[in-house]
Write a structure and sequence with these properties.
206 residues, Large ribosomal subunit protein uL4, Ribosomal Protein L4, Chain: A, 6-stranded mixed sheet, alpha/beta, elongated
């Protein structure tokens, strides 16, 4: 079992805890991680891009000049793709980019990125994150104490003060255990997790 230090909000070590190898000590599967990121990005695409083909562009019903004898190349319509204002060849149409990834594959991918963060010493556990008021400066000070600059902060429950305090820091994102995903874990350099959140993650994914 991997053992990690537990810190308080002042950045002082106040204990340690063992992490479940079934979640934080698995073999990293880079292919599944790649597929999970692709799926999340693809599922976020609106798919509303649209351009008109030559059959949809207005005008161009009459042949612009006769077939032979003008010295010009033969043309059938002023809305053909080679004309200015013409249609687009193989124009994009609205489509659904999403694809399915099995539940077991998604879980394995998340375990892989969590394991990699633990192995890289970029997984910081804090005993608790509580704030009496919404104060961005105070929350920034907590992250500085933990040496976590670009961080994903994982909470067990929705704490309005913590979430609002972190909202104005562009390099920080807060999330809850039920919203944890592969893309966010990879995007941020450090994962800051409360002890309660670690327990919940182990309960759900072990």
């Amino acid at each position: 079992m991997a053992k990690v230090a537990v810190y308080n909000m002042e950045g002082k070590e106040v204990g340690s805890m063992d992490l479940n190898d079934a979640v934080f000590g698995v073999e990293v599967n880079e292919h599944l991680v790649h597929m999970a990121v692709l799926q999340q990005l693809a599922n976020n695409r609106q798919g509303t891009q649209k351009a008109k083909t030559r059959s949809e562009v207005r005008g161009g019903g009459r042949k612009p000049w006769r077939q032979k004898g003008t010295g010009h190349a033969r043309q059938g319509s002023i809305r053909a793709p080679q004309w200015k204002g013409g249609g687009v060849v193989f124009a994009p149409v609205p489509r659904d980019y999403s694809f399915k990834l099995n539940k077991k594959e998604k879980r394995a991918a998340l375990k892989s990125v969590l394991t990699s963060r633990v192995q890289e010493n970029k997984f910081i556990v804090v005993d608790e994150l509580k704030m009496d008021e919404i104060k961005t400066k105070t929350f920034k000070g907590v992250l500085d104490n933990l040496n976590a600059e670009k961080a994903l902060v994982v909470l067990n429950d929705m704490d309005a003060n913590v979430i609002a305090s972190a909202k104005n820091i562009p390099t920080v994102k807060t999330t809850q255990t039920n919203e944890l995903n592969v893309f966010d874990v990879l995007k941020y350099n450090t994962v800051v997790v409360t002890k309660d959140a670690v327990a919940t993650i182990e309960e759900v994914y072990a």
